[in-house]
Design a protein that fits this description.
It is a single chain. 19% of the residues lie in helices and 36% in strands. The strands form 16 sheets. An 8-stranded mixed beta sheet has the order 6-7-8-9-13-12-11-10, with no helix packed on it. A hairpin with a 7-residue loop joins strand 25 and strand 26. The protein starts with 36 loop residues before the first strand and ends with a strand. The N terminus is likely disordered.
Length: 1023
């Protein structure tokens, strides 16, 4: 059964600011210092008042707040809140409890006992009705409990509980699996997972329920002869809290007319222990209330409530108060803890009225120790300057301001003669420590002072070597010949020769010396503040190489100074020069070390190589563990137990047992690399937590059901959010978009952004990797299809093919139609030619027969007929010539037609003496109408001229040719004559012109009066 949780009103206002502290307990160095991470409104929470916390099977954290339900993936909060007129939103934003059942449903209890569940597959809220009058339900103080069988129940402070009926989907009293004694009101439930029984807390006493035998045991009716009922059945009210792993049953009672009492009962022995006095002592007399309890896997108990957060270690009999009035970055501050939850990584989450606090007691492998003297409780907080483990396993810590501190291997303060003697001699500003093979302990001090404690005589002397020039001695190291090298604040490199007991200046490095290091070959390396790195031969003090920030790109340091150097292999040295560099002494190449996403380390002060070959680096971001084989790093910060990132230069050491000790501005940090390294979690699968298309996040339910993401062309900007859903361990994440990314891309943020995806099918793949190169069991995949633009779709291409075929068909049909039309025109011209020739020949034949007959009887009449024959044959020749001219392709333009028209006008003018003028604009000349139009236009022109000149005998004619889109205009003007309507030849010519005009869909009009005659012909142009 899950921990009990109950919300109570605040009892005392003005609770003091709380945080972590060091407990002054006799016989112990210090209680465990826990560092808390905080989440609040500024981090994305809807409210700082947190009522409950739950984790679903995937690893998402669900949070019930006074602003709605939120899902947290370690990076982003996604809010489920009330929406007006939306039945699929939570009923109100005051969420009191969240619980997950066996059917992947997250039950949500809101204010006024409005209840429902979020389907974790669909991510949709479903309201559920409670079979109780609305007014009665709203007045109750309710809570959700889910028993071992999966029954979802609502318990009320005043009233009978109800349970969810899976058949009717309603909370009813009939669905409750137990029945309380008459008049008793069950308020809470605690499961015994071993015996599969339940203890019910009520206003009238404690009740045990056995679902296997369907029995109840309570005061005066102890059916199961249960010892807990026998001992505590009389308590009113009784509140069971927890049944711990050692078999202790915990409960408390707070009668209306009595005081708070808390008990534990050992089931195996019947031993009872009262705890309210111990709790009150731990709370230092402050007001408190305990409402909930939780047990860690190691047997540590946590209890919390109003103004209280206490812990009880396994086999301990004293509670430790985690709520104090000391403030720092990793403190905890609250008035009430509403819920206490442990996730699958053993993080403990506290739901408080001041936000969420999270810490990992088992995972805080970095121990922070404040310097202390033996038998004294005062803490010393000056900056730590050096750390050294002696041959007898004692650990010395030097400080600037409080001198030397000595500890045993467990970091308990110990009393040592050299510490006492140094303090008597005024030792305070100690910068460095060194122990010689004979046991003597040398310390460098402020103002060029040396403190030397002689092991043989157990005496300490204070000397000031002249060679140090009263400059602070910051570093001491010993070479392979037994000589000591001292580095000073002013940059002097001083050598003490053991054979002669003399000090002499060997080099002036022109900058304070941060670190002196003797490598595997016995050469000396000096790190300076502003003069780079020196490689020095110890035999004669000669500088073999000087590495600075100047020179070729591949052979210079990133910064003007260096703070640490260690030898990593025969030719490779790790150098701290603001960032971490690898120096190859054979080639002189210097290469900055970058972590997974290509960003170099920054603010590096110390580098320590552990026994497994990993490098531990102090940076501005915390302590970094670097796997040099694959360049993967893990950064450890506050949640791992590191209270400060203010690490001190040259304040680092590795102890004989492999532990690493690092000095900070106020204390030291101790850890075992093997424990930290061996505890590296196996990387989980990466979960895709959100998808945004064109910066618009898709709804949660659509993302959860997504099998393939389809993106339209032109709306394919994609952002994919992801998380390992781990809240203690951090992993490197690599992703790749197949068919787009050539290589796996290391995570820089928890989002992959693709600003534009070309049309096609893609597969987005992502996995996690730890520092040991282990990867996720499964590589997560997301299939993406970006639709092609419509002009590249199969249907559009098919449409184009069909359209192209249709156009080709239409063009061919037009070609055939033009060919047919041309043939028709030629046929018509041929028919007209045949008709006119036949008619003319018939006329000639008839006239010639008449002339033959009249030749003897009437010679003059015969001559007239012969003249008519001549006229008919001449016209026939002209008509044949016109037709042959029209069908000639070289005469397609109107410009050639105008030339033909002028030739006819000139011939007519010469025969009859008439003046004929022809005018045509340039546009008309450039036209190329079809053959039929051109032929008929030419004939009508000739007929009109013949009518005017030959029949009407006019003296002058003006011909105008115009093009007014889309018509051709032919206009003839003459003066001085009018048509004789009795002249049959005139009538026939006029009718012929109208007939031909009609054949080309044109119009012809003739107007005449005493002043003159006008003929107008208009026809559409066809090209």
């Amino acid at each position: 059964m899950r921990h009990l949780r109950r919300s109570y009103p605040l009892s005392i206002p003005g609770i003091l600011l709380t945080c972590l502290f060091l407990l002054r307990t006799p016989g112990l160095f210090a209680q465990q210092q826990y560092l808390f991470s905080h989440l609040g409104v500024r981090d994305g929470l809807a409210s700082n008042v947190i009522m409950d916390i739950e984790q679903d099977p995937k690893g998402y954290i669900w949070i019930g707040t006074m602003g709605g339900v939120e899902r947290y993936d370690g990076q982003r909060f996604l809010l489920f809140h009330h929406k007006k007129n939306d039945s699929n939103s939570i009923p109100n934003n005051n969420v009191l409890a969240v619980r997950q059942d066996k059917h992947n449903r997250l039950w949500v209890l809101c204010q006024y006992n409005k209840v429902g569940y979020i389907d974790l597959d669909e991510l949709r809220y479903h309201p559920v009705r409670v079979d109780m009058p609305e007014t009665d339900l709203a007045r109750q103080e309710g809570d959700i409990h889910i028993d071992l069988e999966g029954h979802v129940m609502l318990f009320f402070k005043y009233g009978l509980p109800v349970a969810y009926d899976e058949t009717t989907h309603v909370f009813t009293q009939a669905a409750v699996p137990f029945e309380m004694p008459r008049g008793w009101s069950a308020q809470s439930i605690l499961a015994d997972s071993v015996t599969h029984t339940y203890y019910l807390g009520s206003d009238s006493g404690l009740v045990k329920y056995d679902p296997t035998h369907h029995t109840l045991s309570y005061r005066g009716h102890n059916t199961d002869h249960d010892p807990i009922i026998s001992r505590y059945g009389h308590m009113k009210p009784a509140k069971p809290m927890i049944l711990d792993k050692s078999g202790r049953f915990w409960l408390y009672s707070w009668p209306a007319d009595g005081a708070f009492s808390c008990y534990s009962f050992q089931l195996s022995t019947g031993e009872e222990q009262t705890w309210h006095t111990t709790l009150a002592r731990a709370m230092h007399g402050e007001y408190y209330e305990i409402h909930l309890a939780h047990e860690q896997r190691d047997g540590t108990l946590w209890m919390a409530g109003v103004n209280s957060l206490v812990t009880l270690k396994k086999n301990s009999h004293t509670f430790e108060n985690m709520k104090t009035n000391l403030a720092n970055e990793f403190s905890i501050y609250f008035d009430i803890v509403n819920s206490l939850f442990q996730d699958r990584e053993d993080n403990i989450w506290l739901a408080t009225d001041k936000g969420i606090y999270r810490f990992n007691p088992a995972g805080q492998l970095f121990r922070t120790i404040v310097n202390k003297r033996p038998e004294k409780d005062s803490a010393y907080t000056p900056e730590v300057t050096d750390i050294l483990q002696l041959k007898n396993k004692d650990i010395l810590v030097s400080t600037w301001g409080s001198g030397l501190f000595a500890y045993d291997s467990s970091f308990h303060p110990v009393d040592r003669w050299y510490v006492r003697q140094g303090l008597r001699l005024g030792e305070g500003g100690t910068w460095c420590i060194h122990q010689r093979p004979n046991g003597d302990i040398w310390r460098g001090e402020q103002a060029g002072i040396l403190m030397i404690s002689h092991a043989a005589t157990q005496t300490t002397e204070r000397i000031i070597p002249p060679a140090c020039e009263h400059s602070t001695i910051r570093q001491i190291t010993e070479d392979n010949n037994g000589d000591l090298w001292l580095g000073t604040q002013r940059g002097k490199l001083v050598k003490w020769q053991a054979a002669t007991n003399t000090f002499s200046i060997i080099q002036d490095l022109h900058s304070r010396v941060y670190r002196l290091y003797v490598d595997w070959k016995g050469d000396l390396w000096a790190c300076t503040f502003q003069s780079g790195l020196f490689h020095i031969r110890t035999a004669d003090g000669a500088i073999l190489h000087h590495y600075t920030s100047e020179g070729p790109d591949n052979g210079k340091l990133p910064d003007i100074g260096t703070s640490d150097v260690i030898q990593y292999s025969d030719s490779i040295y790790a150098v701290a020069s603001n960032t971490l560099c690898l120096l190859n002494i054979r080639t002189g190449a210097i290469r900055p070390v970058e972590h997974g996403d290509g960003i170099p380390f920054e603010g590096v002060d110390n580098v320590v190589r552990d026994k497994l070959g990993y490098m531990w680096i102090t940076t501005r971001d915390g302590i970094c563990r670097l796997n040099t084989r694959n360049q993967i790093r893990n950064v450890f910060q506050g949640e791992d137990g590191i209270s400060s990132n203010a690490f001190q230069v040259a304040a680092s050491a590795m102890l004989a047992d492999g532990r690493i000790v690092l000095g900070t501005a106020h204390d030291i940090v101790v850890f075992q690399p093997g424990e930290v390294g061996s505890s590296l979690a196996y990387p989980p699968d990466v979960e895709i937590t959100g998808i945004a298309v064109s910066n618009k996040w898709l709804s949660l339910d659509s993302v959860s059901r997504l099998h393939e993401l389809e993106l339209p062309y032109g709306d394919n900007s994609l952002k994919i959010a992801f998380s390992t859903l781990t809240y203690f361990w951090s992993f490197g994440i690599l992703y790749k978009m197949d068919h787009l990314d050539k290589d796996w891309i290391p995570m820089q943020t928890n989002e992959a952004v693709y600003n534009w995806l070309p049309p096609g099918h893609y597969t987005f793949r992502i996995y996690a990797r730890n520092a040991d190169d282990a990867i996720s069991p499964n590589i997560r995949e997301l299939h993406i299809m970006v639709k092609s633009p419509f002009w590249r779709t199969w249907w559009f291409l098919g449409f184009l093919l069909l359209t192209g075929a249709a156009v080709l068909y239409w063009l061919d049909r037009q070609r055939m139609q033009r060919k047919t039309a041309l043939e028709n025109i030629r046929s018509n011209i041929s028919s007209n030619l045949h008709e006119e020739v036949n008619k003319a020949l018939q006329n000639i034949n008839m006239l010639s027969e008449i002339a033959r007959i009249k030749a003897d009887k009437d010679p003059q009449q015969s001559i007239n007929y012969i003249n008519e024959i001549h006229h008919q044959s001449h016209n026939m020749i002209i008509a044949m010539d016109d037709m042959l001219w029209s069908i000639d392709p070289s005469n397609d333009s109107m410009d050639r037609a105008i030339d033909r028209m002028k030739e006819f006008a000139d011939a007519l003018s010469h025969r009859h003496g008439a003046r004929i003028a022809l005018e045509a604009d340039d546009t008309f000349r450039s036209l190329r109408p079809d053959m039929n139009i051109r032929h008929e236009f030419l004939l009508i022109y000739k007929f009109a001229l013949r009518l005017l000149v030959e029949e009407m005998k006019v003296d002058s004619v003006l011909v105008q040719l115009d093009y007014q889109r889309p018509h051709l205009h032919l206009t003839l003007f003459s003066t001085g004559a009018r048509m004789d309507e009795r002249n049959n030849r005139c009538i026939r010519l006029l009718e012929e012109m109208k007939t031909r005009a009609h054949s080309v869909h044109g119009t012809l009009e003739m107007q005449y009066d005493d002043k003159g005659t006008a003929i107008l012909f208009i026809c559409p142009s066809t090209f």
